[in-house]
Write a structure and sequence with these properties.
CATH superfamily of the largest domain: Aldolase class I
Bound molecules: iron/sulfur cluster
Helix content: 25-40%
Number of strands: 15
Distance between the termini: 37 Å
CATH topology of the largest domain: TIM Barrel
Oligomer: single chain
Number of helices: 11
Strand content: 15-25%
Structural class: alpha/beta
CATH class of the largest domain: Alpha Beta
CATH architecture of the largest domain: Alpha-Beta Barrel
Length: about 375
């Protein structure tokens, strides 16, 4: 896709209000246009049928709605759908829609690549390329919302895809504000989770500015030696500083913290690792998410055995830790962050495995699946 010089309508500084004034249009049209995009799931200005045709044509000439295109779309048997989006500069990012009962959760990316270097993660293998813009973050939400039928709404957001969200707070926070806004997606802040490896200065900024989000801190090890091996950025930070910053966030937010722990076979899954972890996080209002490692082709890490996993969890539960084992939804479509992007890069000449059931592979900017693409204009909504 060629880089465009027109203004991106999903950026906070899109200039829409000034444009409307300069074109003799009432200010309320800005709100109407946003409602068409967020609630009406419009693909283009042409879909905004209550705008005068001349205004629609002028908007089309001066603004861009979509800067991304869908490079790949996979759907798993459990309802999980994953999009590989190509950005205007040719880089690619991933985002996922997860269905669980009434929940419609999206997992979105915050950067192209990642600088944190977690050794088991496909997203960090090539380092960070750049931050996503606010508009690119919002586009992921809109692209995924369009996969839902008309009567369904996104209910939860987790910023847990490619990138370290706290390294891009300046662009992420305006995107999440738009997601919460009644004229946006109307998703309660309490249903938005920001995940981090633990960057204390940025955690403190969030504590000071906006502690209403659910914070998830990825630990993966309880001691500095092992954590630095698994999460290299830990070398300059240390587990103690991460926990202190998490505690400050908890004091400001009053919300239960979540700690994430990717369980790697024969690396961090012994009873002794569990005891150290229990000592580290014990005594806090916290949930521990244990995530059995999802094997990535070409990486040396193993999934833990069932016995090792049960022993690990047993030690923690005996110590009074609130543990949850996260199910690996969509594992057959490479739902772990970074996997689809790498697969696509490796398979430009190969066909993807049949088990991945590609739904669409297209560079058409406005493509999506059928059934959910008809623009419509429901009333304002707020997810429950
Ligand atoms: S696990 Fe998250 S923080 Fe670590 S390298 Fe991957 S994307 Fe970055």
């Amino acid at each position: 896709m060629e880089l465009t010089t027109s203004r991106h309508l999903l950026e906070p500084d899109d200039g829409l209000a000034a444009w409307l004034a300069a074109h003799g249009q009432p200010a309320w049209r800005a709100k109407a246009i946003r409602r068409w995009l967020f609630a009406g799931r419009a693909l283009s200005f042409a879909d905004m049928t209550d705008l005068p045709a001349a205004v629609r044509a002028e908007l089309e000439a001066d603004f861009t709605i979509w800067t991304t295109s869908i490079a790949m779309h996979h759907r798993a048997d459990d309802g999980t759908e994953k999009l590989l989006l190509e950005l205007a500069d040719g880089h690619r990012i991933e985002c996922v829609l997860l269905r669980d009962g009434d929940r419609r959760t999206v997992c979105i990316s915050s950067q192209v690549g990642c600088a944190m270097g977690c050794v088991f993660c496909a997203s960090g293998i090539d380092g960070v390329v750049r931050n996503l813009t606010t508009g690119e973050i919002v586009e992921q939400l809109l692209r995924l919302a369009r996969l839902l039928p008309a009567h369904e709404r996104l209910s939860h957001i987790v910023v847990m895809g490619m990138g370290e969200p706290l390294a891009n707070l300046d662009r992420l926070l305006p995107a999440l504000a738009l997601a919460q806004h009644p004229d946006g997606l109307g998703i309660s802040q309490r249903r938005i989770t920001i995940s981090t490896v633990g960057l204390p200065p940025a955690m403190d900024r969030l504590t000071a500015e906006n502690p209403g989000y659910h914070l998830a801190v990825s630990l993966h090890a309880a001691d500095d030696a092992l954590r630095t091996r698994l999460v290299p950025v830990n070398k300059a930070i240390g587990v103690e500083a991460v926990m202190a910053a998490a505690d400050r966030y908890w004091e400001a937010s009053g919300r239960r913290l979540t700690f994430e722990y990717v369980l790697l076979g024969e690396v961090n899954d012994s009873p002794e690792h569990a005891r150290r972890l229990a000592r580290l996080i014990g005594g806090r209002a916290a949930l521990l998410n244990v995530i059995p490692y999802n094997p990535v082709a070409g990486m040396p890490w193993k999934e833990p055995t069932n016995d090792a996993r049960e022993r690990f969890i047993g030690v923690l539960e005996s110590a009074g830790i609130n543990v949850q084992v996260r199910r690996r939804k969509g594992s057959r479509i490479n739902a772990a962050c970074g996997q689809l992007r790498r697969l696509a890069a490796q398979s430009t000449t190969d066909r993807p495995p049949a088990s991945q059931s590609p739904v669409a592979q297209t560079k058409e900017p406005n493509s999506s699946t059928a059934a959910s693409t008809t623009p419509r204009m429901p009333p304002s909504h707020t997810a429950q």
